[in-house]
Design goal:
Number of strands: 8
Number of helices: 6
Oligomer: single chain
CATH superfamily: 5'-nuclease
Distance between the termini: 67 Å
Largest sheet: 6 strands, parallel
Order of helices and strands: EHHEHEEEHEHEEH
Strand order of the largest sheet: 3-2-1-6-7-8
CATH topology: Rossmann fold
Radius of gyration: 18 Å
CATH class: Alpha Beta
Length: about 180
């Protein structure tokens, strides 16, 4: 009798797409609950979190790592100024939006790690990952596309059977503050 091992499942997470998308619909994701959800629902053994690096967020990156994510940081840049004009002494309240642009890194890591997993989960509704999804599906390696909501790229319409809409798990995945409210 041969023993069959469970498939090795890795998740590749576009943190900005996930975070911004759920916030657009009025909630915040609890990253620890989400990591447990990936393990419990899909058997994810490694979850790669792709995120733009901002020095002030060091504690967040440590928390992500402690929650079980493999944190892959990407340098960020100010989207409103030419590179030579960025002044590191700008007050925090004057800072402009920054962009980490992790798409290429996510694709690269999914390809680099391919020999280490049997199935992959792509966590993003961003159509920029269409070629990766197409390739993984052709190789029999795509388990799911976890889209933050029903608002995902139309490029994924042909992969409808792989789509899981995370907003349907909002009750289980939402961050809730447990601070006591002050008494009136």
């Amino acid at each position: 009798m041969t023993e069959t091992r469970p498939p090795r499942v890795y998740a590749f997470i576009d943190s900005q797409n996930l975070n911004i998308s759920v916030q657009k619909f009025g909630w915040k994701i609890d990253w620890r609950k989400f990591r447990n959800f990936l393990a419990d629902q899909y058997g994810v053994t490694k979850a790669f979190m792709f995120i733009g690096y901002i020095p002030e967020n060091e504690n967040l990156y440590d928390q992500m790592h402690d929650a079980g994510y493999m944190v892959v940081l990407k340098p960020t840049f100010d989207t409103t100024k030419p590179r030579q004009e960025v002044d590191p002494k700008i007050a925090a309240e004057d800072k402009k939006p920054v962009k980490g642009n992790i798409d290429a890194d996510l694709v690269l890591w999914a390809m680099k790690e391919m020999s280490n997993y049997d199935k992959a989960i792509i966590v993003s509704g961003d159509g920029d990952f269409y070629s990766l999804v197409e390739y993984l599906e052709a190789k029999g390696r795509l388990l799911h596309i976890l889209a933050p909501s029903g608002h995902y790229s139309q490029l994924y319409n042909r992969y409808e059977s792989y789509i899981v809409k995370l907003d349907s798990f909002r009750r289980d995945l939402a961050y809730r503050s447990y601070r006591k409210k002050p008494k009136s």
